[in-house]
Amino acid sequence: MPPKDPHSLLWTLRFKQHKTTILLFVEQAQTFTLIKQELLEAIKKSGRTEINGQAVPSNPEEVIFGVPKEKNDLTKGWVGLDIPEVEVEDGMGSKKKVGGKKSVLNASPLGAGLKDGAMLAFKFKKDGAKMDEDGLNLYDSNWDVVMPSYEDEYGSQTQT
Q1: Is residue 95 within 8 Å of 88, Cβ to Cβ?
Q2: What is the pTM of this model?
Q3: Which residue has better confidence, 13 or 131?
Q4: How far is CA 119 from CA 90, 100, 126, 157, 158, in A?
Q5: Torsions phi, psi of 13, nearest 5?
Q6: Mean pLDDT across the stretch 24-31?
Q7: Across residues 61-76, what is the average pLDDT?
Q8: Are 85 and 96 in contact (CB under 8 A)?
Q9: Contact present, 28 and 36 (Cβ < 8 Å)
Q10: Which residue has the higher pLDDT, 111 or 128?
Q11: Which of 33, 28, 34, 31 is nearest to 1 (CA)?
Q12: 8 A C-beta contact, residue 132 and residue 138
């Protein structure tokens, strides 16, 4: 992957799993499939074959992204980025489908409403896990993201 020259359409996204953080420069409209591929390449170029005991896959389709439930309080957890297809009423009595694999909301960082500097969690699909039609694990809502705290970094600063 050649180096990218910075410009206004290039964003920095932060990807976290366990204690690992990976920064990638991506285009606003770059597809998540390409971003997943770049993420896997970055992990492999660093010489890692696993993260916290979980093997790094070679297929980008095995990567799942998540976003914070509350971007100002990451301790509240993460939710999958993919928006499942649902049927909604448009106010005039007709129904339409939104979301799903081919939705613009799932296509790119810009479509998903992300911003430059956004933080995303990532995890890998587990073998034998039951998946829905969009390829999401039906029972695994856990995200292995460890956020450092001041106490972790510097210890307790209480005076005696």
Answers
A1: yes
A2: 0.75
A3: 13
A4: 32, 22, 23, 29, 32
A5: -115, 140
A6: 93
A7: 90
A8: no
A9: no
A10: 111
A11: 34
A12: yes
